[in-house]
């Protein structure tokens, strides 16, 4: 089935049934549905096109409809996650790969959302791995944006309006409020040097950091404009979350029934009415005064505990690739997060926890690598530690450096125990090499001795054989002579001598054999 690539917008042909395939146009691996009918696939493609064109609101509506109709399709829920973060993809200039960036600031932890949970619940194994890693990247981007823009300047007034009215009534209100000494956020003026995508991120943060929120519209049809709708919905959300914020709708010549239902519950001011600006300024200053009296507590920075616990989950599941990727994302955003550095070290060595670092196979693995790269000499402590740090990489040293208090004591203890275990293993490895070499030399000596002994015995046998031949030869000659004498001259002593000679020869040969 053909699907729209969420990363480049082209059509890709999917032949795999794992729920993950590669786009032939941009080369990106991504997830696709596995349970949609042809009609539902067309809706899915339409939503992907809208998301690619940055119309996340309309795309989300389609994904929600798909999830309602096919509640066990993982990629529908994943589409909702992408929409709520306004995820788009761009080319990384270094790697050439497609990497995500976000155009909307999701209000809570992406990986804690029900949509993300459902996507994992119904995903295939390959889809789940993709969702986890991509969600980690998106969550880190979201934290970076919140940390970067969430602490920006506080504003007295936030103004939003449709693009086509930016130079009309809204601009006049902005100018007048500035003359009154109020700090005003008005995107076309405040963020004139930024792109539309960047403006939305700052606008979302400004809406949360403003005491009064103004939605300005003079044409009924402009309420449906995507950009304006996103901004006034953000204002509505901010007003509901903080009762001290006031949202005011400023309109001109718009019938009451043309006002969106969600906006009609808030105060409405008619721009064409005499004294409009005076009344508006009075309301804003009164609310500003009430807000200053209450001194609301500032929001704290994002707590990384959830991210760290998720890394621990990856380690426990032995998903070491995901743990490495997650820890790298965290250290990119928070370079001094010692837990992320330590998790990266554990994941690189396929360890689920710190205790497994001291397992025999892990320690012996380090010792073997040390021996291969630096030899077995551990007599020089400084040289040994320097070489070992090179072998370990920077993660463990960064963890020791950035940890504080009891955490520093704990991680330092783990590090020193690991160093000691590797030193002992390298030393043991050296002893085994020495013993092995000694055994090898002893075997060589034994082989040489055996060879020499065989040569000596062979020479001895040859010498005996030669002696026997000589004895046989001399005895035969003498016996022949004596026999001739005994027969020719009838000498009895010759016969006796022959007998004695044969006996002597036999005895001599027997002694040689012994």
Describe this structure as you would to a colleague:
With 514 residues, this protein is an alpha/beta fold. It is 62% helix and 9% strand. It is built from 19 helices and eleven strands. It has a five-stranded parallel sheet with strand order 8-7-9-10-11, sandwiched between helices. About 2% of the residues have low confidence.
The number of distinct helices, counting runs of at least 4 residues, comes to 19
> What's the overall geometry?
elongated
Major β-sheet annotation: 5 strands, parallel
Query: Please, what is the average pLDDT?
Result: 83
Give the strand content. 5-15%
What oligomeric assembly is this protein in? single chain
The helical percent reads 55-70%
Looking across the biggest beta sheet, what order are the strands in?
8-7-9-10-11
The poorly predicted ranges are 295-303
Which secondary-structure class do the elements indicate?
alpha/beta
What order do the SSEs take from the amino end to the carboxyl end, as H and E? Answer: EEEEHHHEEHHEHEHHEHEHEHHHHHHHHH
Number of DSSP strands? 11
Distance between the termini: 95 Å
Task: Indicate the radius of gyration in whole angstroms.
Answer: 45 Å
